[in-house]
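Data availability (excerpt). The following record was deposited with the supplementary files.
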Amino acid sequence: MKKFFMPAFQRRLRVLALSVVLPLAWTSCKKYLDIVPDNIATIDNAFTLPSTAERYLVTCYSFIPPESDLPYSTLLSGDDLWLPIDPLPTYEFVADECWGIALGRQNVNAPLLDYWNGPLGISGLWEGIRDCNIFLEHIMQVPGMSNVQQKQWAAEAKFLKAYYHFYLLRMYGPIPVIKTNLPISASTSEVKVKRQPVDSVFSYIVQLLDEAAADLPVRVTDENQELGRATRLAAMSLKAKVLVYEASPLFNGNDDYAGFANKDGTALFSGEVSLDKWKTAAQACGEAIQACEAAGYSLYRFQPTAQAQNLSSETTTKLNIRNIITERWNSEIIWANPNSTTVYLQRQATPFALDPAAKANALPRGNLSVPLNIASLFYTRHGVPIDEDRTWNYAGRYDLRTATDSDKYEIANNYVTAAFNFDREARFYADLGFDGGIWYGQGVYDDNKNDNWVVQAKVGQTQGRQGVTLFPITGYYAKKYVYYTNVMSTSANVYSMYDYPWVELRLGDLYLLYAEALNEADGPSTAVYQYLDSIRARAGLPDVADAWDQYAKDPGKYKTQAGLREIIHRERTIEMAFEGQRFWDERRWKTAVQTYNNPITGWDASQENASAYYRVKVLYNQTFSLKDYFWPLRQKDITVNDLLVQNPGW
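Predicted structure:
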């Protein structure tokens, strides 16, 4: 088994800085001295040896937001996931920092998930950019290093600097571009920076990634020590993603922000839509995919193990999907963050007492649930939406139905559940756990014995409501997060978990971005279908053309650019479910104002019989307006720096 933690990456270091920290919240120049590893007291000393310089580089990586750590990520900030109760100080984690955005509690005095300044006591991304700049200023003078190694480490810092600018751009829209740190002698006027037009910010990010790619290795050379560090393929893939964002409606000719400008009149958005941006994005996606495939990357496919033998084709297909992000460093993963691991996330997604004999084990919490709205997005087994499949009884989707032996790999035989859960695509069963649903693995691996775990989620049943937090309030679990070999002990508080790093970039993501960019640039084509169909084939679905021609109410939908756009968006939402992409995709597509004004719904989890449990219940009425596309700047920052302008609506 591969060792996937870099020893130096296992703690968040804060290395020295004797120049001015990015001056967005300060009006005068000061010296800032952070904690120094090994008692190094000055920047110069930090770069006297390759070993201490590498520690500084590790610190530059440490600012990557830990996306799998719920209080610090956007996973709970949209409509993908939901919790049983409103955030309380006594909740199991600091839910109001992340879930508060979904609940409409964003504000200007103390913005939630404020990576401009740093949420919940961790450092903001401007500090990360500052440390990258310090590293770039000094790395070429470190003695005892080859020029090739110096350039590679500098390229890693450029990659991170680009990523941090991109992360802030997604959150705040037009941001300052910080190419170099200011000297300690800088005047007050020099310290006050202002926002740059979004096109300028994108151009700078792409420039950094191009420079980084030129000096990065295609793959890391020492997998035991370096997995998670930037590579040429990661830089090319991130560039492709950045360019897709630049081409998307939120940033490309967004009329809603046509009047948004700095105080000097500099327009921060262009009102003109550029088709060339989509063409540039498509080219970058194609180049990244070609380079990845040439280096041996491919869409992940599950291979039977010593434990998982005698698998049905249905279970194998589900493991193709379920293990995409949970199988460490598999053939699809281009870049992952070893600082962002998933033990706690898996605990929240694992049903309490999935093994009925493990009721004394409180580690599996089972309170991270998936709204019915999201479960509705998954296709039927024919590969089309449930409301478009002319063979699927959409009107009767909430009726009760009893499973038969033909359903045994998805739903327990003779179990009564909603018709909604039947005849769905493999990703539905791979990604979601639900009342009556089969949960493969977790210590039970012989598929033919038909003794797989069955989720029983009504009140009075094993996974039914326990207190105020130990149950999925919507009726659906995020099974996709849970590795199939995890085993919960019948003893108290022992849950053996396979920890994996959070996936930042994977090949399937690139395939879908490429299909989207090609369609937006030139409309439907063989290439668009090719990359969509590759994703669908792994999920056991027919090609787009076959699915729509044979089963859809609108057979020709995929032949038009608008129809294919809708299909691509839906495919991306399903394939990338719970990976932190929907939250940003809905924004860049400018569809969030429709999506997030729908109520959050689920089954009535407080009921003990099927007829009462399978009633749709509104859990929360979300609201979203134009201002919510971007985070507000903290009011204090605007007061201190009068050159900064607030985002519209805040």
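Summary of structural features: The chain has a mean pLDDT of 91.
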